[in-house]
Amino acid sequence: MTSRAANLRGMYLRGTVQIGFTAVVTGAIGWIAGWRHGHSLVTIGLAVYLASLFTRGVSLQRTLGTFEAVRSRRSSGEEALTHAAGAVHHYRKLAAKRPDERERLAQMLEAQWHLLNELGKHEDALPVAREAVETCRLVAATDPGYDERLSTTLHNLAVTLERLEHTDEVPAVLEEAIAARRRVIARHDRLLATSLFNLALIHRRRREWQSALPPVEEAAAIGRRLAVEDPDQHEAAADSARSLTGVLDRLDRPEDALEAAREWAGHERALTSVRADRAPELATALFALGSLLVDANRPDEARTLLLESLEIRRRLAAEDAAHRVTLAEECSTIGQRLGAIADYEEALAVLREGLDIRRALADADTAHTDDLARELTHSARCARSYHEPELARQLAAEALAVCREHPDSTTSHALLLALQELSAAHQHLGEFEPAVALGEEVLTLLDELIADNPSYLATMLTELEQHAVLRHRVGRPQDARRTELRGVGIWEQHNSDADR
Q1: In 3D, which of 442, 334, 443, 435 has the Cα closest to residue 389?
Q2: pLDDT tens for residues 369-391?
Q3: Residue ranges covered by each domain of the chain
Q4: Segment 92-115, tens digit of pLDDT
Q5: Integer angstrom CA distances of residue 387 from 48, 342, 345, 348, 428
Q6: Is the C-alpha dihedral spanning 56, 60, 65, 68 positive or negative?
Q7: Are the C-beta atoms of 361 and 331 separated by less than 8 Å?
Q8: Which residues have CB under 8 Å from 488's CB, separation 6+?
């Protein structure tokens, strides 16, 4: 029954009881006052009230069992035991008809076991302990929260078996009790780990990295232990290890971050072996681990992990076209990381793969055109740093052409980046005249951008400085001087505006 339906049912039952009670009271008052229909109203009210007992699930066996249980608690010795046996008898009948009432039976059996032990009747306590265990097992099968009671009844059974020297059975019973207790502890630990993870998350959002470290370390330690005992806990453990990796990286503890990333990747591998839907998370973990290995100057292992991450992304994109955008993004970042370990040939091949995907996406949907322009510029910058200046010039020229051919589908910022990179590529090739012409376009575009967004001011000052140097190189000292003075004027104007 849903919560909403249960609430409605409860409301109707309370209303029925209230109506019956009101009818009885009103009828009784009317009857005393001489109203001839008062007796009838009392009769109707009682009938309604009695009918509500059945709809409320009132049971004779439950009522009798509760009566015997109360008498047992108020008595002692043999009398208490007799009443406890009576309560068990009624609750056993009730549980046979209503399995959801087994908990009452289990509790009463445990009470009966304690009374038998107090009276030294250990032989009689054995079947009671066995029945209590079986009942608790049935309850725990549908309610994992009952494991604690199951553990207790198993311990009681072990005590009785030991007293009766049935020692062969004791180890198995205690092992089951320990397993049940471990499940209880694990549930508490999972809740604790979740709370610790959430606390660390709050500190991370506030960029309080040092404060985030203790809770996320403890959450990761709990997750590590639980995952060994229960493979279903690898997901929570992976989340904690991922968070710990990020915090340690922020705190500039590279070796510790590397170990946390290894643990994260290990959890993701374990998950992916049984759940194919975790493949994207595994790729992310492998990339993070590979990147940290790049920073740690371990190129061979880094290259292996980065390419494994890329291969997972390729497989996902082959299975579902929706993953192609992610594959293109990964080609960009992995290409850059491969370049950082001087594997330029592989890096350029990966960058080209990403560009091919971007071109296909842009051909199919102009919404991807701006991403294509930006990625061409990024790849050009990478090619220039990989000692491929001609390729860099070609890619930057293509980026600029995309921006000019699709002004409605690309942003001014993408155009700015393309102009800057093409100018840099020409300078790298020693072609300063084309670089000067492109630099002038950059300055013109920045004038337009600053009018709407003053944050471009720093970029403008940097470009003016570089442009002045270029003009000196091509033999235009007067133009260079004017450019320098323009930069000084803009800076002074900015300071003047700031002082107001």
Answers
A1: 435
A2: 999 999 999 999 999 999 999 99
A3: 365-429, 431-500
A4: 888 888 887 888 888 888 888 888
A5: 93, 11, 11, 11, 10
A6: positive
A7: no
A8: none
